[in-house]
């Protein structure tokens, strides 16, 4: 099970395959997608989900937010295929 609040990098991965970072941040990505669906303010999301204060680090917060939300959308559309092709962790599908 991925951690609930892992430390986030300034930028999410941009690889065309699912990465270990993506797996570790699956909960983060889900929270970002939920926040977007709820039309949450990006500053609030950066503060709560990414744990970056946009009043102190506005550029870093905005870039991290946009990068991670974009990656969350990619994972939801494409990255899940990598997970399905791997099968379950126990080797059973």
Structure, explained:
This protein has 93 residues and is an all-alpha fold. 59% of the residues lie in helices and 0% in strands. The chain has 4 helices and no strands.
Distance between the termini: 17 Å
Please state roughly what percent of the residues sit in beta strands, choosing from under 5%, 5-15%, 15-25%, 25-35%, 35-45% or over 45%: under 5%
Let me know the largest β-sheet.
none
Assembly form of the protein? single chain
How would you spell out the order of helices and strands? HHHH
DSSP helix fraction: 55-70%
In total, how many domains does the architecture comprise? 1
Name the average pLDDT: 88
Q: How many β strands by DSSP?
A: 0
Structural class determined from secondary elements: mainly alpha
Radius of gyration: 14 Å
Q: Which word captures the global form?
A: globular
